[in-house]
Amino acid sequence: MATHKCFCDTGLLFDNCCGLYLEKRQKAPSALALMRSRYSAYATHNVDYLLETTYISERKYYSKAEILKWAAANKWQKLEILSFTENSVEFKAYFLDSNQKPQVHYEFSTFKFENNAWFYVDGKFE
Fold first, then answer.
1. Domain assignment present for 7
2. What residues contact 6, with CB distance under 8 A and at least 6 apart?
3. Is the residue at 1 inside a domain?
4. Each residue of 50-97: pLDDT tens digit?
5. Which terminal residue of the chain has fewer beta carbons within 10 Å of its beta carbon, N or C?
6. Residue 10 contacts by C-beta under 8 Å, 6 or more apart in sequence?
7. What is the CATH number of the domain that holds 99?
8. Tally of domains within the chain
9. Does 113 map to a domain?
10. Reported pTM
11. Would residue 67 count as lying in a domain?
12. CA dihedral 114, 86, 40, 81 (to 10 degrees)
C-alpha cells in the first residue's frame, strides 16, 4: 500500500486517489479525475495506463518508448488545475527537465466518454 500523498495535488493518499485508477480498481469517474490520474501516470512512468486512457483513434500518434522517455526524463513537481468542464481540463504541470531546470507544461485537454469510460482525446498547448 502506498501511504504517500498523491502526485496530482488533491492532498489525498495515492491509494485513495489516482492509485484507484492506475491499479485498475476503479475507472476514473470524470474527465478531471482521468486527467489527474494521467498526470500521476507520468509521475510513476505508467505508460500502459497512458495509452489505455487515450482515445482509440488517437493511439496511433503515440509511441510507448517516447512516452516513457519523456515521463522518465522529467521530475514531476506539481499539478495546477486552471479550469474544467464535463469534457475538458485546462492545467499546468510543473516539472524539472533532465537538466534540473524548472519547466511548465500548459495544456487545454479534451476528453470523451465512451463505453462507460473517459478517454483523453487531444490537447492544445502553449
1. no
2. 12, 13, 14, 16, 17, 18, 19, 36, 40
3. no
4. 999 999 999 999 999 999 999 999 999 999 999 999 999 999 999 999
5. N
6. 17, 36
7. 3.10.450.50
8. 1
9. yes
10. 0.94
11. yes
12. 160
Whole-number Å distance between alpha carbons of 89 and 107: 8
Please name the residue that has the C-alpha cell 483513434: 57
The one-letter amino acid code at 60 reads: K
What is the per-residue DSSP string for the chain?
Answer: ---SBPTTSSSSBGGGTHHHHHTTSS--SSHHHHHHHHHHHHHHT-HHHHHHTB-GGGGGG--HHHHHHHHHHSEEEEEEEEEE-SSEEEEEEEEE-TTS-EEEEEEEEEEEEETTEEEEEEEEE-
- What's the rounded Cα separation, in Å, for the pair 109 and 88? 5
Farthest CA pair distance, the chain? 41
Cell representation of residue 99: 537538466
